[in-house]
Amino acid sequence: MLNKESLIEIVCGKCPATCWGAKSICRTHDRHVGMIEKCQEWDKYLLEQKGLQQHDGQSAITNMEPAMEWLQKAEELIKGYRYLVNKAAWLRTELERSISSTPSLSNRLVASYGDDAGMPSGKGLKISTLNIPEAVYNKKIRRLEELEKKIKQIDEAALTIQDVQEKAVLECMLDGEKMNLTAFMVGVSRQRLYEIRKNIIIKIAQALFEGTAA
Fold first, then answer.
1. CB 169 within 8 A of CB 200
2. Residue 51 predicted with pLDDT over 60
3. Residue in 128, 122, 154 with CA at minimum distance from that of residue 140
4. Residue 113: how many CB atoms within 10 A of its CB?
């Protein structure tokens, strides 16, 4: 199920009752959108997702529970993309610093970023070549591999976005830009931006998760 923050962004973002600005007040509930706990429009949106369909000849997500879960996961991955990239870069730097040896050995220990061969294990290395315990080194290696796998999955899913406008919006989403700034940069209204973002999340969810259900 989508959390409240996502519902506010997705549903309230295009609702004519929402007065965006410094206070972001909902005229229907007469309170700040962040103070709303239940809303008929939220319920309507969730029901509309049942039997979610794409009408462009692509396969469809038709089961409500996995569809909602996939959409939420896809949105979370997009929002967290910049963190994943930064964390992977930080881990790589930490791994490089943990090695005290000749450059040639360092290159063998730490593969280049994005190398399909992946990161090598520290197993069997002389402890004198590492500044940290071998177990810690290998743990960081595994963590980096996990991050790079997620980054690669998102990058590959992003390739399914072909529309020029959607590509521009997705780039802003991956960079963590706010909706108001994204709308300004792309040159669309907030309501139009909501529709574009919705289409992007659906396509990314399909690329990431279709075919994974039992």
1. yes
2. no
3. 122
4. 12
